[in-house]
Amino acid sequence: MSTGNLDFEQFRVFLEKACGILLGENKQYLVSSRLNKLMEQQGIKSLSELVQRIQTQPRSGLREQVVDAMTTNETLWFRDNYPFEVLKNKVLPEQIKANPGQRLRIWSAACSSGQEPYSISMAIDEFERSNIGQLKMGAQIVATDLSGSMLANCKTGEYDSLAIARGLSQERLQRYFDPKGPGRWAVKAPIRSRVEFRSFNLLDSYASLGKFDIVFCRNVLIYFSAQVKKDILLRIHGTLKPGGYLFLGASEALNGLPDHYQMVQCSPGIIYQAK
Predict the structure, then answer these.
(1) Do the annotations mark residue 202 as ligand-binding?
(2) Inter-axis angle of helices 28-42 and 62-71, nearest 10
(3) Phi, psi (5° rounding) for residue 139?
(4) Which positions does UniProt annotate for S-adenosyl-L-methionine binding (predicted)?
(5) β-strands 212-217, 158-160: how paired?
(6) Residue 104 carries which DSSP code?
């Protein structure tokens, strides 16, 4: 094994311990593309030197910067579309009926660049427009991510034309965004005010989050080992009210845990109901 491979192996171990992400053995290119600039700025020559510096200088902020760089992902508006239709047509009516007089709570876990929680908020607005007076107590969306810099951007609710082009219809752009100058748009205040952004590591305690009616944990479990994935799914179950719903990514399946979740076919798509 070359020094480079040993370096990479050391970094893989560090990253899994720090945030649970399991890097594939052939992902050196991804690490290079995401960390080259940071390592250059810090005058760090190798991944093992980077890990050593993180361990010897815990207060330097370097650990947070590395995790930030490795976990930052662009995403789409209304990704896969069907979850948001299922939310409006099935899940919201059911949860309103099951929890009369209560505000619905929705968790967007690993919210990345903010498109998911804002898409959920727009879907709720669309539901309210066609079901006037049903969602009397409203809804709160708690959106969490590991990346501090990503969350800071999310809170502004501002996006450039490149980000806007990724899955947003012209109709929704006009209804839910205000132009903010050449090639920039901001999510309108009523959509933004429904969302609360928090920094959160899925490996940490969930106690501070409270209980939810609905959890979106989409396209994030693929980064974890089977054991960590199972642990996260069990802990998410602990945050869901009985009968609450879990949305996973289109290519993700919940295998096992039959005592905790029941699969619900929605054609298209599958969601999971907490037992």
Answers:
(1) yes
(2) 150
(3) -145, 145
(4) 73, 75, 79, 116, 145, 201-202, 218-219
(5) unpaired
(6) E
| 201 labeled binding residue | yes
Helix (H) or strand (E) holding 66: helix 62-71
The CA R_g of the chain, rounded to the nearest whole Å, is: 20
Q: Which of 104, 136, 84 is nearest to 210 (CA)?
A: 104
34 is in an annotated binding site: no
Q: In this structure, how many other beta carbons lie within 10 angstroms of the beta carbon of residue 156?
A: 12
SS3 state at 244: strand
Do 72 and 115 contact (CB within 8 A), yes or no? no
User: Is 72 among the annotated ligand-binding positions?
Assistant: no
Closest CA to 145 of 82, 77, 196: 196
**Distance, CA of 209 to CA of 84 (rounded, Å):** 23
pLDDT at 2: 40
Q: Which amino acid is at 205?
A: S
Distance in angstroms (rounded) separating the CA atoms of residues 74 and 166:
10
Check whether the bond before 190 is cis (ω within 30° of 0): no
- What is each CA distance from 163 to 39, 114, 121, 184, in whole angstroms? 27, 11, 18, 9
pLDDT of residue 1: 30
102, 139 Cβ separation under 8 angstroms: no
Q: Which residues of the chain have pLDDT under 50?
A: 1-3
Using one digit for the tens of pLDDT, what is the confidence trace for 136-193?
Answer: 999 999 999 987 878 988 999 999 988 898 899 999 999 999 999 888 999 999 999 9
172 has binding-site annotation: no
Is 3 flagged in the annotation as binding? no
* Global model pTM greater than 0.70: yes
